[in-house]
Backbone:
């Protein structure tokens, strides 16, 4: 029901996944982790936090969930008017303490992705783009100039804040690189409108940049059709990832 539920659920799944992996390791199993859609992204996060060589196969997910919830089809399910009303000064200060995005990155996002050109700051105004965004007067000016949400549709400022928060907790670049990226196979859908991968958005990194050495496989179809018709592709990717892991383990074994 709440945006914060996503963070709580994600944290719980990472912890639960780590506990299960630890038990399986103690039992002597070869380890691998996979999932589809949100499960795929949580598999990526769990593998990164586990930080030991395992086969990793996220399916129908990408390097961050930020774009999914701010601009993908699923964004239509968000109650944007409620989220906008919650952008109080105290909430903005909390967000400022959390966000790690740089001024240069947020300026690119504002100007190129959202078409927002920050005005020249007034005397004694915050100099940082992040600080300016978190300044209530500045926020109100931008919001008024852009027009508030109509019929619950998102305005650009609310969308931006949603994206910043989701990105902070879900972007793989903020987590350790998986211990064995060579045994990671990422399966994505060519026409996925749920988990989008816009090439014109510099903020969304290609997962191969974050996990150098991983393999990305593309299947024809959209999010739902790929889930229904490409299970054989997912299973093959899992098998191949275990084969890659075995090769990696052998090549990195201590030599006598």
Residues:
């Amino acid at each position: 029901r709440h945006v914060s539920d996503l963070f709580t659920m994600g944290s719980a799944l990472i912890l639960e996944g780590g506990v299960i992996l630890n038990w399986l390791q103690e039992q002597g199993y070869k380890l691998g982790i996979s999932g589809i859609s949100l499960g795929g992204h949580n598999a990526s996060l769990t593998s990164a936090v586990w930080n030991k060589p395992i086969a990793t196969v996220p399916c129908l997910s990408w390097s961050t969930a930020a774009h999914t919830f701010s601009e993908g089809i699923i964004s239509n399910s968000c109650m944007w008017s409620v989220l906008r009303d919650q952008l109080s000064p105290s909430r903005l200060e909390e967000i400022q303490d959390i966000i790690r995005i740089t001024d240069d990155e947020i300026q690119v996002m504002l100007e190129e992705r959202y078409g927002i050109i920050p005005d020249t700051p007034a005397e004694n105004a915050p100099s940082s783009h992040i600080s300016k965004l978190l300044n209530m007067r500045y926020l109100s000016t931008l919001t008024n100039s852009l027009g508030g949400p109509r019929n619950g549709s998102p305005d650009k400022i609310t969308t931006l804040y949603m994206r910043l928060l989701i990105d902070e907790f879900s972007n793989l670049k903020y987590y350790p690189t998986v211990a064995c990226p060579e045994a990671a196979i990422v399966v994505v859908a060519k026409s996925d409108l749920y988990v989008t991968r816009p090439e014109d958005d510099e903020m969304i990194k290609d997962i191969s940049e974050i996990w150098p050495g991983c393999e990305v496989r593309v299947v024809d179809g959209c999010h739902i059709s790929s889930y229904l018709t490409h299970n054989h592709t997912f299973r093959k990717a899992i098998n191949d990832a275990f084969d890659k892991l075995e090769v990696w383990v052998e090549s990195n074994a201590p030599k006598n």
Remarks:
- The CA atoms of residues 121 and 185 lie 46 Å apart.
